[in-house]
Structure formats: structure tokens, C-alpha cells
Design the sequence.
């Protein structure tokens, strides 16, 4: 009794300890999960906010670029572009008025200036030209040293912080004799990033060189450069005290980012964490109390559950006992019933797996016997399905019940099933006694078996004797213990499992000789091979069945060189005087027709078989080898290749039509192939083989062709073309068009229309 109480106390202490650890771990897990979730949500939210800010900046500068493009169309600008041409005050005034309109149409622009390189003069919308030119000298000098088309600077003009946007003009000419300088006030960044008082945390922008361009928030620029910028620009780990979100470099190489101290960001979650730990302590006390009160029920309930899991055989006894007792309406009875249901479901699934696995294995065995094993994948499957293949040699047996059709009238289907099952067990047991192998049903009353033997160094003769001895053992046992007899066909003995399909076919072909040998016989296929004048089987260096199998494999692989090497093996027959020429000619003729029919069955248009008269005119092995290469290998490979190319052309044509019809959409190869019900790999291969191009290049070509048609037959703007053809802006479209066609879109339209008018 004391020992039992001691065990109960020990159990109670362990349970309390485990409960404490679990509740503490639960609180910490909740905190970690909540923090990570909040971090991800905040990261996503600020990414959206930063993306909007980036879009606003890009839209602002696109507005400036569009105004500059319109400004370039002014005739008055040509006098300033032309080097050495005298300035016209009226033209200068026209330009200044246009610049003033641009200034008033764009927010946050205080001044626009035009700087001419030839005379180093500055024309500004502000009348204090001389003073402004002195302030802009450092900016212009710095810009010229950068050797860029556009730049953005933070500087001081008239002792006031100013943002300067400067770009070279004209945009689409190689020589750029003018600079346009736009003076942006600080309200531009307040509108974009917000004012310092309004921002919680810090919004900032880094320029293309990684320097702080603008910063709005409570943290100063020095702190951001020390703790945040190294993480963004060099991938260094940031301070754990700061939360940082940023976008990749975008328009002009700028990086938009946000930073905020973690304490400020996670203030509420830290409070929740403290509340969770307080609740964890309360739950710990409650768990201890509940544990003490429920210990007796716990032991009693788990005793029932352990009994159920340990010994399922006593289940019926426990159900009988439970029916005699009053039902217990408690929690453990519910758990007990649920676990019993889970166990029954598990047992049912196990039975289903046991039923399905033999069927899958049986299907693989049939496929293996009819197609052979050539790839490493096939060998891996043999290992997976526990099909041992020994290296000493193998042979195939085809076991057929004699007079099976007549037995169907004497025995029921159940009896015939058990007869077949018993016969397969006998075959498998005899095979296991000799070596390793498998058995598969291949028809009513017929079984195909593989027997492989270990490499014991006794040679092919011993392997052949073992295979025939196994066949005789099967036949004798069936004759003695079953109400029927069997005939057994035996294939040749081989070592290469690539010819397993030939061996199984030979075993089945051997049974065809049952017409001559009679029933209840073991029939080796080699007894019916060509014999020489002395009645002995001639050992040939070439197996015509294996040669036929190899040539068919090489032709299907579209590898004529490999097929040539196989065919050249016939030259080893040269000089064998024991060969009968009529038999050799018959074997070669049969091989030719078999190859034609096998390959032709996979073609939509089977090839025309050669005439027997043509084959009879071949009188030497050299002629046969040459004829096989030209009229069999080359011809059938060409037919297969032509059918392959027809399929590729059809797929390529379908893709081409689809791309031309939908090139204004955001196309992907996977989506096109899915719409056409074509595998993606086939679509990619078709474009490569037919058009010698990739999907992206073909789509680009299709869009350029459509753009050329628009430029010739419509007045559509370049911006609209770029938008309709899925380009982010007109500059990218113009750059791509020029790279492909050789000239920009505007120049192409002008030249083509001039040529059309001239014609």
C-alpha cells in the first residue's frame, strides 16, 4: 500500500512539473508567434505604403519627363540646340514662358532654368539669373563629372535647402548641348514622406550611391546611416533595436525605406506577453489543483486505454463486461471510444495497403517481363518491390495448364482460381529453391516466370541445366498432386536483363511447339534452333532476336549511329562455313519484317514494307548490312523524325497564332501551353526546333511587328503602344524597339511614311 502511495506521489510531482513547463512554453510560444505574425503583417503593410510612395515619386518624375518631351518640340529650342547660332531674344522669351507654364503645372517646383553649354548661360524663370547661375555652378560642375543624362542633388540655393533635378537635352539625340534644371522646394519631400511631426518612425530615401537623400521622423540621419543603411546596401545584420522595411532599388536607383524602434512598435504585444505569463501562473495553480482532484480518474481511464492498445484480442471481453456494468459518463470513456475508432480505421487502412501493394507489384512484374530492364529507373523499381536479380544468369519459364478450356466445364470458377493460385505457389517455391525469381499470370491457365541464379562460376551450361531442372520439378509435382498436367516452355539463358522481354517471348514461343511435342512436356526453345549437318546446334556470335531488339530500341531513340553499331555485328558471321545460307537469309528477312511492323505500329502512317524480291537479290553480308542501314535504319528513323517534326511544327504553329493574337496581354509560356492543352516542355521544344528561338524572344518579335504595323497605319502615340504591349514606360519600349529595328519608333514612323508617300 505504501509503495502504491509513493508511486502516486511521484506521478503527481512529475505531472505538476510537466504542466508548469507546458504552460510556460505555451506562453512563450504565444509571444513568439504573435511577434512574428505582427512583424510579418507590419512588414507587408509598410511594403505597401512604401510602394505607394515609390509610385508617387515615379509618377511625379514621369510628369516632369513628359513636360520636357513637350518642351523639346518647341521650334524656339532649335536655336539653342544648334552650336554657334545666335540667340534670339524673342525665342528666349517664348522658352521662358513655356518653362513658367511647366513650373506652374507641376507641384513643388519653385524655379526652372535652362543652361546652354556653348556660352555657359543660364535662362531661368526667376529674373535673378546672375545670382542663380552662381549658385548652380557647383551643381552643374558636379553633374558634368557624373557623365549621366539625369541627376538629383540636395544643395543650398540662396542659403535655403533645395532639391535640384537636372537632365540633359534633347533626350533622344546623341549630342546634348542643353541642361534643364528644376528647383524643387522641401515641401516635395513633405508631401511624399510626410512632415517630421506627423511621421511615427522614420521614412527615408537613399540615392543610387547609398547616401541619405531625405529623412522624415524622430531618428536623425546619422543614426540611420549607422544602423540601417549597412543592412540595406551591404546585407549586414541590422540592430535588433530597430524594425526596418525597404524596397529594392527602383526608379533612378533610389531605395525607399522605413525604420522604427522595436520598443515603440511592439508596445502592445509586450503588454500582451506580460498578461499571458500572468495567466500562465494562474493556469499553473489551477492545473495543480485539477491534477490532484483528477488523479484517481486519470489512472483508471489510462488503464482502460493501455489495455485497448496493448491487447486488441481482449476487446470483446471488455465490451461484454462493460455491458454488464452501468455506463460511465466521463471523459475517459469518450477518449476510449475515439481511440478505438482510430485503431479500427488504422487497421482498415493497413488492410487496404496490403491489398493494393501486391497488385502494383504484379503490374510492374508483367511490364518488366514484356519490356525488359534497360534503365536505372527500372532497376531501382525492382529493388523497391523486392524483386531480386542475381548475376549468374537467368531464364524464363512459361507454364501452361493443358486442356484448360475443357477444365472450365468440369470445375467452378472458385476451383480454377485455387488451382491457379496453387500452381503459382509451386512455381515460386521451386524457383526459390534454385535461386531467385518471380511469377506472373499472363492469361487463363498460363503463368510466366523468371528464374535467376547466383554467379557460382559454373558457366552458362550449369545455369541452363538448373533452369531445365526447375521446369522438370514443376511438371512432375503438378502431375503427381494436381488433377491436370502442364507444359513448360523454356527460353535461352542470358545475363543481360535488357533482353528479359526476348526471354519471356521465347518461353511463350516454345509452347507453340506443343503441337509437335505433345502435352505434359518441358520444351526448351533451343531445341528448335537451326541445326548443322551433324545435328548439333550451331553456336553463333550473333543472336538475331537480341539484334532485332537492339535495333528497334536504337531506332525508337532516333540514334542511327547506335543502330549502325548493332547492325555491324552481322559482319562477325562472315566466314562461318557451317551456316546454311537459306536459313541465314530467312532469319534476316524475318528480322526485317519484324522491325518494320514493330516500328510501324507506333506511326500514324506505317511505312511500306519491302518486297520479298528485293530481299532475295541481296547475296552477301556486306550487301545486307548496307541495305539494312539505308532501307531500314535510315528510312524508319527518317519517318519517326518526320512525324516528330510534324508534331513540333503543329505545336509551334498553334503557339505562334496564340502569341500573335494575345501579345497585348501579360503572356507566360505555361499559360499559353495550358490554353492550347500542350505540355510546357513540348511547347518550349517546338519553338526551339522550329523557330530556333525562345518564348520570350518570339513574344518580343511579335510585339515589335505589331508596333511596326501601328506606326505605319495609325496615329497611336508611343506611350499608348508601350502601355498596350506591357512595357512599364515609353522609354523602355523605345529602347527595345531601337535595339530590334535599328531606329526609334518616331524615326521609324517618319521614314516609313516618307517612303510610302514617295512611292
Sequence:
Amino acid at each position: 500500500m505504501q509503495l502504491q502511495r509513493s508511486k502516486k506521489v511521484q506521478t503527481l510531482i512529475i505531472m505538476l512539473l510537466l504542466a508548469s513547463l507546458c504552460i510556460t512554453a505555451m506562453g512563450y510560444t504565444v509571444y513568439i508567434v504573435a511577434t512574428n505574425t505582427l512583424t510579418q503583417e507590419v512588414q507587408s503593410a509598410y511594403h505597401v505604403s512604401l510602394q505607394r510612395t515609390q509610385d508617387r515619386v515615379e509618377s511625379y518624375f514621369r510628369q516632369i519627363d513628359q513636360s520636357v518631351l513637350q518642351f523639346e518640340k518647341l521650334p524656339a529650342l532649335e536655336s539653342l540646340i544648334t552650336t554657334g547660332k545666335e540667340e534670339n531674344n524673342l525665342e528666349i522669351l517664348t522658352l521662358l514662358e513655356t518653362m513658367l507654364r511647366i513650373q506652374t503645372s507641376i507641384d513643388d517646383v519653385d524655379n526652372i532654368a535652362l543652361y546652354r553649354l556653348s556660352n555657359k548661360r543660364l535662362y531661368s524663370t526667376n529674373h535673378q539669373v546672375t545670382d542663380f547661375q552662381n549658385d548652380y555652378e557647383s551643381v552643374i560642375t558636379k553633374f558634368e563629372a557624373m557623365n549621366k543624362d539625369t541627376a538629383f542633388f540636395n544643395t543650398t540655393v540662396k542659403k535655403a535647402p533645395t532639391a535640384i533635378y537636372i537632365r540633359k537635352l534633347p533626350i533622344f539625340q546623341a549630342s546634348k548641348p542643353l541642361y534643364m534644371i528644376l528647383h524643387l522646394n522641401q515641401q516635395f519631400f513633405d508631401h511624399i514622406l510626410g512632415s517630421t511631426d506627423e511621421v511615427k518612425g522614420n521614412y527615408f530615401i537613399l540615392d543610387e550611391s547609398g547616401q541619405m537623400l531625405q529623412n522624415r521622423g524622430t531618428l536623425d540621419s546619422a543614426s540611420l546611416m549607422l544602423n540601417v543603411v549597412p543592412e540595406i546596401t551591404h546585407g549586414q545584420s541590422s540592430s535588433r533595436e530597430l524594425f526596418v522595411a525597404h524596397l529594392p532599388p527602383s526608379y533612378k536607383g533610389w531605395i525607399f525605406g522605413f525604420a522604427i524602434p522595436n520598443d515603440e512598435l511592439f508596445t502592445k504585444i509586450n503588454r500582451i506577453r506580460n498578461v499571458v505569463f500572468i495567466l500562465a501562473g494562474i493556469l499553473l495553480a489551477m492545473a495543480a489543483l485539477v491534477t490532484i482532484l483528477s488523479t484517481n480518474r486519470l489512472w483508471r481511464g489510462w488503464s482502460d486505454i493501455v489495455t485497448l492498445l496493448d491487447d486488441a484480442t481482449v476487446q470483446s471481453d471488455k465490451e461484454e463486461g462493460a455491458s454488464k456494468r452501468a455506463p460511465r459518463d466521463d471523459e475517459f470513456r469518450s477518449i476510449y471510444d475515439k481511440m478505438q475508432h482510430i485503431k479500427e480505421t488504422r487497421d482498415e487502412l493497413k488492410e487496404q495497403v496490403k491489398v493494393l501493394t501486391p497488385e502494383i507489384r504484379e503490374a510492374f512484374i508483367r511490364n518488366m517481363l514484356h519490356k525488359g530492364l534497360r534503365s536505372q529507373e527500372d532497376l531501382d523499381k525492382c529493388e523497391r518491390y523486392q524483386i531480386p536479380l542475381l548475376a549468374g544468369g537467368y531464364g524464363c519459364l512459361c507454364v501452361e495448364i493443358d486442356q484448360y478450356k475443357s477444365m472450365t466445364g468440369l470445375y467452378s470458377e472458385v476451383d480454377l482460381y485455387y488451382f491457379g493460385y496453387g500452381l503459382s505457389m509451386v512455381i515460386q517455391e521451386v524457383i526459390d529453391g534454385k535461386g531467385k525469381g518471380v511469377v506472373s499470370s499472363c492469361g487463363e491457365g498460363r503463368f510466366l516466370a523468371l528464374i535467376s541464379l547466383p554467379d557460382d562460376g559454373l558457366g552458362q551450361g550449369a545455369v541452363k541445366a538448373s533452369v531445365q531442372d526447375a521446369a522438370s520439378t514443376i511438371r512432375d509435382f503438378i502431375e503427381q498432386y494436381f488433377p491436370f498436367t502442364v507444359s513448360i516452355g523454356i527460353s535461352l539463358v542470358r545475363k543481360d536483363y535488357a533482353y528479359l522481354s526476348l526471354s519471356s517471348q521465347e518461353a511463350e514461343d516454345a509452347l507453340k511447339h506443343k503441337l509437335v511435342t505433345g502435352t505434359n512436356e518441358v520444351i526448351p526453345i533451343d531445341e528448335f534452333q537451326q541445326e548443322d549437318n551433324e545435328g548439333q546446334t550451331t553456336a553463333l556470335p550473333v543472336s538475331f532476336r537480341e539484334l532485332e531488339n537492339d535495333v528497334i530500341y536504337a531506332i525508337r531513340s532516333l540514334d542511327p549511329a547506335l543502330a549502325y553499331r548493332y547492325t555491324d555485328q552481322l559482319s562477325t558471321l562472315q566466314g562461318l562455313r557451317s551456316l546454311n545460307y537459306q536459313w541465314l537469309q530467312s532469319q534476316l528477312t524475318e528480322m526485317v519484317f519484324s522491325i518494320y511492323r514493330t516500328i510501324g505500329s507506333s506511326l500514324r502512317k506505317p511505312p511500306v514494307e519491302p518486297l520479298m524480291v528485293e530481299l532475295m537479290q541481296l547475296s552477301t553480308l556486306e550487301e545486307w548490312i548496307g541495305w539494312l542501314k539505308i532501307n531500314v535504319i535510315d528510312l524508319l528513323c527518317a519517318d519517326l523524325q518526320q512525324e516528330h517534326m510534324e508534331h513540333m511544327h503543329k505545336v509551334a504553329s498553334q503557339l505562334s497564332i496564340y502569341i500573335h493574337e494575345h501579345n497585348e496581354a501579360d503572356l507566360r509560356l505555361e499559360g499559353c501551353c495550358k490554353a492550347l492543352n500542350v505540355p510546357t516542355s513540348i511547347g518550349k521544344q517546338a519553338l526551339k526546333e522550329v523557330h530556333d528561338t525562345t518564348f520570350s524572344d518570339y513574344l518580343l518579335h511579335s510585339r515589335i511587328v505589331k508596333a511596326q504595323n501601328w506606326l505605319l497605319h495609325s496615329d497611336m502615340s508611343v506611350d499608348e503602344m508601350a502601355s498596350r504591349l506591357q512595357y512599364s514606360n515609353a522609354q523602355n519600349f523605345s529602347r527595345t524597339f531601337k535595339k530590334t529595328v535599328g531606329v526609334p519608333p518616331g524615326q521609324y514612323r517618319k521614314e516609313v511614311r516618307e517612303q510610302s508617300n514617295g512611292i
About this structure: Residues 439 and 663 are 58 Å apart (CA to CA). Confidence is low (pLDDT under 50) at residues 1-6, 311-329, 530-537. Residues 2-72 form the longest helix (71 residues). The chain is about 60% helix and 10% strand.
